[in-house]
Amino acid sequence: MQRAVLVGCGAMSKAWFEAVRTIGDVEIVGVVDLDTARAETRATEFGLASALIGNNLARVLAETSPDVLFDIVVPAARHATVAAGLEAGCHVLSEKPMAETLEEARDLVRRAQEAGRVHAVVQNRRYLAQIRRIRRLIESGAIGEVTSIHCDFFLAPHFGGFREEMPHVLFLDMAIHTFDAARFMAGAAATAVYAQEWEPANSWYSQGSSAAAIFEFADGAIFTYRGSWCADGLRTSWESAWRIVGSKGSVVWDGHDDIRAEAVTSGKDGLFSGVAAVGIPPLDASDRVGGHLGVMQDFIAATRGGPVPETIGTENIKSLAMVFGAIDSAESGRRIEITI
């Protein structure tokens, strides 16, 4: 039985508590939040009568000696929280983003390596069955080599709280899911980006609620992103709406359950080549699915000597670098080369 401390008891924490309960063989021995009443409420909700409740992470870590730290704090507290967990000898699973700056992310990668601990990030969207199936289709070669990926994200959520005040809110808080999915589906890392942010007249966000970006990938593919968090009407899915263009065909995904693909079947017959529908491969036993639960299962397995999680810090920083590259480009008005 592994011992765990969970820190950060906001709305997102419920999915984490539920995932821990589903996995089993992990005991939450400490629950931490700046608001101890909120921590007590969550502990009671999930029947954690013996868990130590507190608002001081260092003290709870010292008194409970956990194996694992589950980090669900606001982004501004991420670096200090992960650093404290690693220093206490914990493996750490964090909510995204991995860090508030690329420098902080690099520091956390270094700390995890020096501590010999697993530090992974909940990049739960890449654990969606639809994304796995699209990646499987691309790997099959049915649409040839990926030449471009395009996605639209248009929603208008009234979150309240820190999101409505944070700078670069769309890029930093949400777009990383899309960027990570694009990187996963393309099977390549981004090398450069040109981006722009703007604030529509109807926006209730402080800065960066609407944005567009063009990424260059290492294999020559282009990824375009268009998004807004203050676009009322005709909403897209939270997973975006996608078109993936290959050298022999295309895939479209509405972000829900509708995935369609067509591939070239013959040479030009007049103006266009002949095409036919392509079946989307099913999942198989090797596919990682399950959102928060899937990420957590891989993380826990890794802490017990299993394979390195897909969302380990050394990998997730590549997606975070896309975010900060886009932010740098939007601020400077220049094309930015992406490095980690």
What does this molecule look like?
One of its GO terms (molecular function) is nucleotide binding. It comes from Phyllobacterium zundukense. This is Oxidoreductase. Residues 3-121 form the Gfo/Idh/MocA-like oxidoreductase N-terminal domain. This protein has 340 residues and is an alpha/beta fold. It has 2 domains: 2-117, NAD(P)-binding Rossmann-like Domain (Rossmann fold, 3-Layer(aba) Sandwich); 128-286 and 320-337, Dihydrodipicolinate Reductase, domain 2 (2-Layer Sandwich), CATH 3.30.360.10. The chain contains 9 helices and 15 strands. The strands form 2 sheets. It has a 9-stranded mixed sheet, covered by helices on one side. It has a 6-stranded parallel sheet with strand order 3-2-1-4-5-6, with helices on both faces. The longest helix is centred in the C-terminal third of the chain and has 20 residues, at 313-332. The protein is globular and about 75 Å long. The mean pLDDT is 94.
**Averaged pLDDT, please?**
94
**What is the end-to-end distance?**
36 Å
What CATH architecture of the largest domain do you see?
Answer: 2-Layer Sandwich
Rg calculated over all Cα atoms: 21 Å
Sequence stretches where pLDDT stays below 50 over 5 or more residues: none
CATH homologous superfamily of the largest domain?
Dihydrodipicolinate Reductase, domain 2
Q: What fold name stands as the CATH topology of the largest domain? A: Dihydrodipicolinate Reductase, domain 2
What share of residues is helical?
25-40%
Keywords:
alpha/beta, Rossmann fold, Dihydrodipicolinate Reductase, domain 2
Helices and strands in order, then pairings?
Layout: E1 2-7, H1 13-23, E2 26-32, H2 36-45, E3 52-54, H3 57-64, E4 68-71, H4 78-87, E5 91-94, H5 102-115, E6 119-121, H6 129-140, E7 146-154, H7 169-186, E8 190-198, E9 210-217, E10 222-228, E11 241-246, E12 249-253, E13 259-269, E14 272-277, H8 291-303, H9 313-332, E15 336-337
Parallel strand pairs: 1-2, 1-4, 2-3, 4-5, 5-6, 7-10
Antiparallel strand pairs: 7-11, 8-9, 8-15, 9-10, 11-12, 12-13, 13-14
Helix pairs in contact: 1-8, 4-5, 5-9, 6-7, 7-9
